[in-house]
Amino acid sequence: MLDMLRWFASTQIRNVAAVAGNIATASPISDMNPVLMALGATVVLGAAGAPPREVPLRDFFKRYRTVDMQPHELICCVRVPDTQGPYEFVRSFKQAKRRDDDISIVNACLRVRLRPSAGGWTIDEVSSAFGGMAPTTSRAKLMEAALQGKEWSEASFDRGYAALAEDLPLPEVVPGGMAAYRQTLAASFVYKFFVGVSVELARLAARGPQ
Question: Which PROSITE patterns does UniProt cross-reference here (predicted)?
Fold first, then answer.
């Protein structure tokens, strides 16, 4: 989350921005919503005279710029679960036309929890969220299902890339254009995630038991 905030808007905007406002505006290229969704965040909504209700962020975005929130409700808080143990990894990604102070073309966040298995690692839990690939921030459910319970390996991720193409199809004529480029960006983020976590696993193995 902190890593993505480095590239979120500008210093002046960050000084006055609110997390709840960024969520509620439901921009399909929001930089924070993919991170919060992949982490399993929930929003707690409140209204005068009514008990609060809690909505998982993955269910909060209904369609373009529309959320599961009534006109009389406010976002009271955002709950973000802690990561569990040394083998849970989260990475966020953003590609824009400029490095600083620019909206995303595509962004993403991926999270995985691994467990040691014979000769390697098994994917116990995986979640993902992408911006700029649909009218709302979206999970790649087919990719997650293709990876869940599988060995942490290039072969598993090859199947994941194929599923991702089905999760996030873009027509040639799409708002914002650059359909093929955006699909390539989404796949490249998944590849960077695989490489980055693999490097971290190698470092952990080199240190030995802690």
Answer: FAD_PCMH (PS51387)
